# Entry
Amino acid sequence: MTENTRYEVVVVGGGAAGLSAALVLGRARRRTLVVDAGEPRNAPSAHMQGYLSRDGMPPAEFLAVGREEIARYGVELVRDRVVDATRDAGGDADGDGNGDRDGNGDFTVVLAGGRIVRARQLVVATGLKDELPPVPGLAERFGRDVLHCPYCHGWESRDLPTGVLATSALSVHQALTVTQWSKDVRLFLHEVSESELTYQDLRRLAAAGVAVVPGEVAELVLTDDRLTGVRLADGTVHAREVLYTAPRAVPRNDLLVRLGAELRETPFGSYPVIDERGLTSVPGLWAAGNASGFAEQVVNAAGRGYRAGAAINGELLMADLDAAVGV
# Structure
């Protein structure tokens, strides 16, 4: 069904950041729509950690509670995907004569299901996706005993024989960090050559008791649906019960690119240039959560969403007052 419904704010993405922004906006009595494609980054995880009062909560349960909360304040949520968005030229798409001053109709948003909506402000909270190294067994175990974040999973896997699969020289830092939770750590260099490790790297690894294992990893060894080892290309098997790796982060920034937001290059992908509130270089366009940066844990993403929601309400309030007095 094709519509042309107008909202004050459309939030693209129904994860922690998007729902948090929507909660603030709903409580501020702003007509808000959340468009959720249902692809949370932490879906493979059975639990999330480090969120005060929500420590150990399953991610799916967390999102379900969030959806219930925003519904109390009249926020609409649809299961759909945004396939296109434009910022309306001329700034008076709703024809109210106020031009850009009130922000009405600034964005036209097209959903995969055919619906078209308009928004005064647009929040992109689409997050990112993780691309894992193509090692047999790795993707199937991700979020179980193949992990990426010791702050998320270290306590639950403490004191177990642990491996770190190197995806770059930056994996040295990951291996060193993991030793906070296990003193039996082996760094599998995989496709990283020993020459890429600096003298300081080697000294720190030795001081932390991390064994460096050269050679390519061929596959994971599983027994009774659990990780029991890492097999190298030469056939050698290292008994391990936990394996950390750093996936390649792929920001879901297509919408931001399409709308002309300025991006900054980082070692973890391209992310929008934003101010402290989350506003991008495009007026009315906001980014929150992992759409704004790589290292946003759930609690941080929720905080980013809250900050953006409050800032948007203030922007809309001042724009309406200025329009009323003809500024």
